Amino acid sequence: DTGVSQDPRHKITKRGQNVTFRCDPISEHNRLYWYRQTLGQGPEFLTYFQNEAQLEKSRLLSNRFSAERPKGSFSTLEIQRTEQGDSAMYLCASSLVPGQGFVWQYFGPGTRLTVT
Amino acid sequence: EDQVTQSPEALRLQEGESSSLNCSYTVSGLRGLFWYRQDPGKGPEFLFTLYSAGEEKEKERLKATLTKKESFLHITAPKPEDSATYLCAVQANEGGSEKLVFGKGTKLTVNP
Question: Is A55 in the B-facing interface, judged by CB distances under 8 Å?
C-alpha cells in the first residue's frame, strides 16, 4: 500500500492554457474522488468515480473541467482555458466500498495549480 | 444544504495545555462525521470517523466525540508536533451522495 499519488505536485500555467493532472489511487480501491481546496478553505467536492463510471459531479465542475477514469484505475482531471480563479490545490482521494468496517477517503498529497 | 462550521478558526496553545475544537453541522441525515489533520502543503490525513450521537473515538492525545448537532476534538497535553489544521467533514445519508462536506478547519499551533 503506497498511498494515493498525484502528478505533478506543482503546476504553473498561463491563463488560457489547458492543464491535466493525474491521480493514482490505492491499488485495490474502487472509488476515486476529486476535490479542490483554496487557501484558508476546506476541500470542496468536484466529482467521483466508481470504477470507470463517473457517478456524481458538483456544480463547481464547469464545462471547462473534465475528469476520466478510463480503466477504473488512475484518473485524470483536465482544465481547459484556465482562469486565475482556477488557482487552487487539487486533491484526489480513494476508498474501497464496501469495505471491512467503516470506510473513509484516503487523500493524496495534491497538485498545486497556479494560473498567472 | 449541508453545512459544517468549525471554531475557533485558529488556536494557539502552550505545550501541555489541553483544549477542544468544535465542529457544528447541519446535514440531511448523517451517514458519518470525519476528522482529518492537514499539514501545510499536504493532503488531509484521516483521524476518526463517528457515526452516531454519543460515540467517542481516541487516538494518542486526541479524542473525538459526537452529538446530534456537533462534534468536539479534545486535545490532551498537546505537543508541538500536533500543530496542524484540523478539518471536520460530514457525509449525508440522503440522496446517494458520496461527497464529504468540509468545514474551513481550525489551525492549531502548539508552542514549546
Answer: yes
pLDDT confidence band for A71 (50 / 70 / 90)? confident
Q: Which residues of chain B have pLDDT under 50?
A: none
Question: Distance between CA atoms of B56 and B40, rounded to whole angstroms?
Answer: 27
Asked whether residue A47 carries a pLDDT value surpassing 90, the answer given is yes
Is the pLDDT reported for residue A61 higher than 90? no
Judge: B45–A107 Cβ closer than 8 Å, yes or no.
Answer: yes
Q: A85 vs chain B: nearest CA distance in angstroms?
A: 18
pLDDT at A1 over 70: no
What distance, in Å, lies between the first and last C-alpha atoms of chain B? 41
Concatenated DSSP letters of chain B: --EEEEE-SEEEEETT--EEEEEEEE-SSEEEEEEEEE-TTS--EEEEEE-STT-EEEETTEEEEE-SSEEEEEE-S--GGG-EEEEEEEEESSTT----EE---EEEEEE-
Q: How confident is the model at residue A102 (pLDDT cuts 50, 70, 90)?
A: low
**If DSSP codes are grouped into helix, strand and coil, which group holds residue A71?**
coil
User: Distance, in angstroms, between B82 CA and closest chain A CA?
Assistant: 19
